[in-house]
Write a structure and sequence with these properties.
The chain is an alpha+beta fold. The chain has 13 helices and nine strands. It has a six-stranded antiparallel beta sheet, with helices on both faces. It has a three-stranded antiparallel beta sheet with strand order 3-5-4. Strand 7 and strand 8 form a beta hairpin. Helix 1 packs antiparallel against helix 13 and helix 2 crosses helix 7. The longest helix is centred in the N-terminal third of the chain and has 15 residues.
Length: 350
């Protein structure tokens, strides 16, 4: 069934973002459990190469969408496999954190950003450059406040859950996510970087790398991810529009795939509801209600990536939407893209 979408207004909105230098280019799609019903592109891959337009198969550094594609989905497999109970204290089953402040925290605390762990990653300054030293430092660090006291978004929540996934699965996060989620779903272009040369050529460039003086392309923008070899729970994944559409379609109707990934409808339903009671801002499990929407009435959930990416989903409306940009090419200023995102969401879920 075709969705009633004002695609002309969507095109106008996203082309205006190119004109106003909110981002060099954008790729977008809107659909439901049956497939993609509208999609398009705007702008160019790189303003320095004006003859290279954004394409539907442009590869994006999805930044914090890694938290959904790799961490949230992997944690879901462990929960549904019976290997993880969300409300069990980490110290009860994870030797690495036993006896340290993190021992009293639960996976649910981390998934709702209520764990009280430090707000900034700051990994190199605190722990150096050795990956094991970083892991030990993060898992043994003091809490910023008692668990369950406040909702405070922090990259460390996903970093810790990535380490937890590795502990419980016995595999590196990239291998586990690929085996249990991306390969079964049919997401062949979703992977952690650095990307091979061919894929990097199709990748939207992000911020200028201070070391080389050129825009990062095929290497994660996120400093924590680069410090940890490109692979961590915070960021580091790359993907394309079609792969993300497959992921969101599956979330709306897990019966669609012949080879199911390790999480199913129970995990999706559990995640797309408020777990933070009266605390603000309201949170599901890593997903959160879209800004400007009423969670119970509208049921529109979102997660963003710092590079300029975003995914929305609404089981009640049987609809999903994706907007991928490389806004970081121009600026770290959030407000211009925030305005575009909110307008896009309004049009996508009208």
């Amino acid at each position: 069934m075709a969705l009633d979408l004002d695609t002309d207004r969507i095109h106008q909105l996203l082309h205006a973002g190119v004109r106003d230098k909110v981002y060099p280019g954008a790729v977008w799609a809107i659909g439901d459990s049956e497939g993609t019903h509208a999609s398009g592109t705007a702008g160019v891959l790189d303003p320095a190469l004006p003859d290279e337009p954004m394409r539907h198969d442009t590869v994006f550094d999805v930044a914090s969408l890694t938290k959904i594609l790799a961490v949230w989905s992997s944690i879901g497999t462990l929960v549904e496999d019976g290997k993880l109970q969300l409300d069990a204290a980490l110290g009860d089953f994870w030797p690495e954190v036993r006896g340290y402040p993190l021992a009293q925290v639960t996976a649910r605390h981390l998934l709702t950003h209520t764990a009280g762990v430090p707000l900034r990653a700051n990994l190199k300054n605190l722990y150096g450059t050795d990956p094991q030293d970083v892991r030990d430092g993060v898992l043994h660090e003091a809490l910023h406040r008692p668990p369950g006291e406040a909702v405070e978004y922090t990259d460390r929540a996903a970093l810790i859950l990535g380490y937890l996934t590795e502990h419980l699965s016995g595999q590196h996060l990239d291998a586990y996510a690929a085996k249990r989620v991306w390969t079964p779903l049919g997401m062949p272009q979703t992977r952690f970087g650095p990307l091979p040369a061919e894929a990097a050529l199709r990748c939207a460039p992000t911020e200028v790398d201070d070391n080389t003086g050129t825009h990062l392309r095929g290497t994660a923008h996120d400093f924590s991810a680069r410090l940890l070899g490109g692979i961590c729970g915070i960021a580091g994944a790359f993907s394309v529009l079609d792969d993300l559409a497959v992921f969101l379609r599956y979330m709306l109707d897990p019966t669609l795939t012949t080879e199911s990934p390790g999480f199913g409808s129970d995990w999706v339903k559990e995640s797309l509801q408020i777990h933070t009671k009266a605390m603000t801002p309201p949170r599901g499990l890593f997903w959160h209600p879209a800004p400007g929407t009423a969670p119970e009435a509208e049921d529109i959930w979102v997660h963003y990536g710092f590079t300029g990416t975003g995914m929305w989903i609404s089981p009640a409306k049987n609809r999903w939407a994706i907007l991928l940009t490389n806004k970081l090419y121009y600026t770290r200023d959030r407000e211009p893209l925030t305005n575009v995102r909110n307008a896009f969401r309004s049009l996508a879920f009208a």
